[in-house]
């Protein structure tokens, strides 16, 4: 490929440096090198790879945005659920406590009082 570019450059420079119009037309008529089938296949492959890469990039960016939106929605739902649970906990803390002596034996009540003090 580099050799081909050098050959093109070597053929273009004399055309630009030609003094007369006839000299310019003579150098312009020369072929710029043999175009091989391999170059055509490589060019087609490069263009196809570029197009496929762009399609995959677009697909991945759309999926990334969609998954981010889904995660944000889930986080918002969890925040609402946590706030609801915190509100319920606060409501339960404000309710009057049940008398422990009515539910447990005196020995167990002493244990519970000791636990509450610590």
Q: Which key terms come to mind for this protein?
A:
2 domains, 118 residues
Describe this structure in words.
- With 118 residues, this protein is mainly alpha-helical.
- It folds into 2 domains: 1-34; 38-95.
- Helices cover 83% and strands 0% of the residues.
- α1 runs antiparallel to α2.
- The radius of gyration is 41 Å and the shape is rod-shaped.
- The relative contact order is 0.04.
- The mean pLDDT is 77.
Written as H for each helix and E for each strand, in order along the chain, the element string is: HHHHH
By helix and strand content, what is the structural category?
Answer: mainly alpha
Radius of gyration: 41 Å
| Stretches with pLDDT under 50, minimum 5 residues | none
Number-wise, the strands total: 0
Tally of helical segments: 5
- Beta-sheet strand percentage? under 5%
- Main sheet specs: none
Helix fraction bin: over 70%
End-to-end separation: 83 Å
Globular, elongated, flat, extended or rod-shaped: what is the shape?
Answer: rod-shaped
Q: Name the average pLDDT.
A: 77
Number of domains: 2
